[in-house]
Write a structure and sequence with these properties.
single chain; transmembrane; 6 strands; 6-stranded parallel β-sheet; 2 domains; KANL3/Tex30_Abhydrolase; disordered N terminus; Rossmann fold; alpha/beta
């Protein structure tokens, strides 16, 4: 008997139950993806607050490209509430910035923490990352102000960093000459990468003439910078849990390889020694066989010295094998083996000839 079709009310209840299950128990892959998504704390520059068009645009781009669970923006006290006072020294903003970071971390525990900043905000972010109570996974510096107002290079904070740093700089940024940035990066302990926006100024703005010459647009240039940043972040966060394991594996592999090479050298040494002893044993058996016929004994005994000379060369061959295998094969080793075989064959043929002559007589 065919089963009756569920009533409309029953179908509606089943649909509602299914929807509730999806809401309460999202797929495990989705949970894993969300847990691996970073939380980004994005600090503004000295002259514009977080509500500026530049900050809003880059906040959206970073959130999308980095798959961030949230990009937290804020205003430093000197510029909040519509104030327009001169910014203080970067060091005086570290405590306030650190509190913002701690609040973001408490809101998203277990998520990777990325400190990002524009100009002065990137410099303060680097200072915050150096604090012991802040566990940053990575820093993104957009237009890092490497040169101070007096023209001096401000690299002290960068040289103390131990977390990966991504630099995005305009090629025409007067506050960060590229050659000076490259020199600083070579001295840094932390891993870093530099993406240059060709023709960009301190805020990455490219002149229309330069864009026309390159056949590009402002959006394309900034999108390339964002994609380079996302690639660096992905590589850095993926490998952040494995450096100790990789080092341990490399040390273990080196140890195993060393033991194998030592074993190989020992085996080769023993092999050649046994080989020469076997030849010597066979030769003396041959001598005894010929001596039992009473012929050519003096001729055969004279060739014992020849065999001894060949054996001496062979033993020296095995002794030097463990010292320099490649050098030995090319130079001394092959020559020694040839000398030994020449003496051995000479003695063997002379003994055989003596035995043959004895049989004829």
């Amino acid at each position: 008997m065919a089963s009756s079709r569920p009533s409309k009310r029953r179908r509606q209840d089943q649909t509602e139950d299914h929807h509730t299950d999806d809401t309460e128990s999202p797929p495990e892959s989705k949970l894993t993806l969300e847990k691996s998504s970073p939380v980004v704390v994005f600090a503004h520059g000295a002259g514009a607050p977080s509500s500026s068009d530049w900050m809003i645009r880059w906040t959206k781009m970073l959130k999308k490209a980095l798959n961030a669970v949230e990009v937290v923006t804020f205003d430093y006290p000197y510029i909040s509430g519509g104030k327009r006072r001169a910014p203080p020294k970067a060091e005086k903003l570290v405590d306030f910035h650190s509190d913002i970071v701690k609040n973001a971390v408490s809101k998203y525990p277990g998520h990777p923490l990325i400190l990002a900043g524009k100009s002065m905000g990137s410099r303060v972010s680097c200072m915050v990352a150096g604090r012991e109570d802040i566990a940053a996974s990575l820093i993104v510096c957009l237009g890092y102000p490497l040169k101070g107002m007096n023209g001096a290079v401000r690299d002290e904070t960068l040289l103390q960093l131990t977390v990966p740093v991504m630099f995005v700089q305009g090629s025409k940024d007067g506050l960060c000459p590229l050659e000076k940035m490259e020199a600083v990066r070579k001295k840094m302990k932390a891993m870093s990468e530099l993406h240059v926006i060709d023709g960009g100024d301190h805020s990455f703005k490219i002149s229309k003439k330069h864009l026309q010459t390159k056949g590009s647009t402002q959006d394309e240039a900034e999108d390339a910078a964002v994609q380079a940043t996302a690639s660096f972040v992905s590589r850095s966060l993926t490998g952040r849990s494995f450096p100790l394991v990789a080092v341990a594996a490399a040390v273990l592999a080196l140890l195993v390889l060393t033991l194998l090479l030592l074993g190989l050298l020992l085996m080769l040494r023993l092999f050649f020694l046994l080989f020469f002893l076997l030849l010597l044993f066979l030769y003396f058996l041959f001598l005894l066989s010929m001596a039992s016929h009473g012929h050519g004994l003096s001729c055969m005994l004279l060739n014992v010295d020849a065999v001894g000379l060949g054996l001496g060369h062979g033993l020296r061959f095995t002794d030097t094998l463990s010292l320099s295998f490649d050098h030995l094969l090319v130079n001394f080793g092959l020559a020694s083996a040839q000398v030994f075989m020449a003496h051995f064959v000479e003695g063997f043929l002379n003994g055989a000839l003596a035995l043959f002559c004895g049989h004829i007589n």
